[in-house]
Amino acid sequence: MSYYETQAEKSDHFFFEKRTVDALEAHFHSRVEIIIAERGELPVTVNGEKHVLRGGEAFFCDGFSVHSYGKATSDFTAYAILCDKSFFAEPAARLEGKTFPVFFGFKNFPLLETLYENYLASEDKALTLFGACSLLAAEFLKTAKPVARRTERGETLVCGILEYIDGHLEEKISLPVLAEEFGYSKEYISRTFSKYVGAMPRYINRLRVQKARRMLAEGGRTVIETAFLCGFESPNTFYRAYKDAFGTPPKTACPDR
Asked: What predicted TM-score, i.e. pTM, was given to this entire model?
């Protein structure tokens, strides 16, 4: 099961980094994520498709694609970019409804290094990254043949629902509540959420048990107290959801057990 990376949606959350890439479980967000491998190998899975990203290749994730990273080789280094889709708005307009393929070759590392150094030295990093993305888009087109963009609807609604869930975990969250909050029918919300994320109750319970695990590790609360503070309406539901997520009962997370 994938998870929605809420941190990535914050307006001030963007980056341009040169680093290795840690293994990361399946996740998704609306932002553009780019990995340009300089050397080494990184296993990447995107929308169920597995690929080994090698030096001289780029991975372009155009938002709302479920992607994960496996364990990279010890020599793996890459340039990683995360930014809002608006950073690629002008290049996207020139592509006339198309986008870059998920994987393609990339060779101009001198340009990439220059853009990276300019970004590090810049006081206005958002503006500098915006300009860098335009230059990179032009460079991508030298080796990347544009492909048809996925025609998806409901992305904005799903983003809103996921952010609402993240901010109201301790409250009762139901289809009637979400229908009133967002102005859509219960059926449409259920259908759209299932399409992008999966079963809503399981997703909510997963976030709640993750929160509960952190709270239990801090100590000072009983398991039952923690369950109710995280939005569970019964201890049995909490125990089942916790064991389903972590394979152990919740008491194992308590520091004084």
From this structure: 0.72
